[in-house]
TrEMBL record:
Cofactor: Mg(2+)
Organism in which the protein naturally occurs: Arthrobacter terricola
Binding positions (ATP): 73, 91, 104-108
Protein name: DNA integrity scanning protein DisA
Alphabetized Gene3D superfamilies for the sequence: 5' to 3' exonuclease, C-terminal subdomain (1.10.150.20), DNA integrity scanning linker region (1.20.1260.110), DNA integrity scanning protein, DisA, N-terminal domain (3.40.1700.10)
Quaternary context: Homooctamer.
GO molecular function, one term: ATP binding
Key words, A-Z: ATP-binding, DNA damage, DNA repair, DNA-binding, Magnesium, Nucleotide-binding, Nucleotidyltransferase, Transferase
Superkingdom of this protein's organism: Bacteria
Length: 357
């Protein structure tokens, strides 16, 4: 399957992250105040736009890249930057390809990246920047200090949002047990989950850019994002018994695609779940089917949870079921029935205590 431009950019960022030989070579070029044009990969399309130069075929090293950059022309490496294949190459991409760049080196880099689908790096001698071109996307590499400053700010935001998400999730659990859930409660939980996901995704991009300088940040991100069901479980809980897996997936995708302004609109989120009517429907009562709370019982497989929900039809019936009632479900023996019964009871007690203490 072909990668999207965003996925290709992320993969390339990993190759040029601080601590990698390629990033070392690029920074040597910057410090030496020379420019460079580097193509990361070769195929027939790349070869067709290359003219002249020298066949090198040597193992990559930062110092070799720096020395070869002193010559006019581009440098062609393999896709992993493990070997330098050619140097002093003239690149002749299709001049009809539109570009927003003004400098000759940057215009060439963008056109080559678009025409070949191969990542191209342009090091500007005058502006002292490293620009990465991948499938029509442009990304300027910055120093670790600047990236870390933005990452720490995003991490502080994530911590606040995670606390708020924990609060609304606990509130939703208590309301589910009391059979007092409204559409608003569900929409707010999904909204907060998506906000946390987006901030975490932004921080993950910083971790990728930072390379070995982002190890501590990576650990903090992992700690803040671990645990809890995804939005697909919540949507499945409230989308109705007749909702197909494809419809659930479509709803999850629609939530992911909401713009920043749309994400604030709880009526829009309610519509994605299946509650049409905008803001007027937010105070309507709803009943969960039980998927979300059952997903919190790690010893209960998903297939068993599905059978329990299908058999009892809703969370309230499931909460009221005795061990004997649970054992009537196919595949539920005495031990598993006790696990489910005791697990749901513990979750009910914890949620109610969190709500009223």
């Amino acid at each position: 399957m072909a990668r999207s431009p965003e996925e290709s950019l992320k993969a390339t960022l990993g190759r040029v992250a601080p601590g990698t030989p390629l990033r070392d070579g690029l920074e040597r070029i910057l410090r030496g105040r020379t420019g460079a044009l580097i193509v990361l990969g070769t195929d027939r399309t790349v070869e067709s736009i290359c003219s002249g130069g020298f066949e090198i075929g040597i193992e990559f090293s930062p110092t070799r890249l720096r020395e070869l950059a002193k010559m006019d022309g581009a440098i062609v490496c393999d896709k992993d930057a493990g070997n330098i294949l050619r140097a002093a190459v003239q690149l002749m991409p299709d001049s009809s390809i539109e570009t927003q760049e003004s400098g000759t080196r940057h215009r060439t880099a963008e056109r080559v990246a678009i025409q070949t689908g191969v990542p191209v790096i342009s090091v500007s001698q005058s502006m002292q920047i490293i620009a990465l071109y991948v499938n029509g996307l442009r990304h300027v590499l910055e120093g670790s200090e600047k990236v870390l400053a933005r990452a720490n700010q995003a991490l502080a935001t994530l911590e606040r949002y995670s606390v708020r998400l924990d609060q609304v999730t606990s509130s939703l659990s208590a309301l589910e047990i009391e059979a007092m859930v409204t559409v608003r409660d569900v929409a707010v939980t999904l909204q907060r989950q998506e906000m946390v996901r987006r901030i975490a995704e932004e921080i993950a991009q910083y971790v990728l850019e930072l390379g070995e300088d982002g190890r501590l940040l990576s650990l903090q991100l992992e700690e803040l994002t671990m645990g809890g069901p995804g939005s697909d479980v919540i949507i499945r809980d409230y989308a109705g018994a007749d909702a197909s897996p494809d419809e659930i997936d479509a709803a999850v995708q629609a939530l992911l695609e909401l713009g920043p302004t749309e994400l604030i609109d709880l009526g829009k989120i309610a519509g994605i779940i299946g509650f049409a009517g905008g803001l007027d429907v937010l105070d309507a009562g709803v009943q969960p089917r039980g998927y979300r709370l059952l997903s919190g019982l790690k010893s209960v497989p998903k297939a068993v949870a599905d059978r329990l929900v299908d058999h009892f039809g809703g969370l309230q019936n499931l909460m009221a079921a005795t061990i004997e009632d649970l054992m009537t479900v196919d595949g539920i023996g005495d031990q598993r029935a006790r696990t489910v019964r005791e697990g749901l009871s513990r979750m009910a007690e914890a949620s109610l205590l969190d709500r009223f203490l």
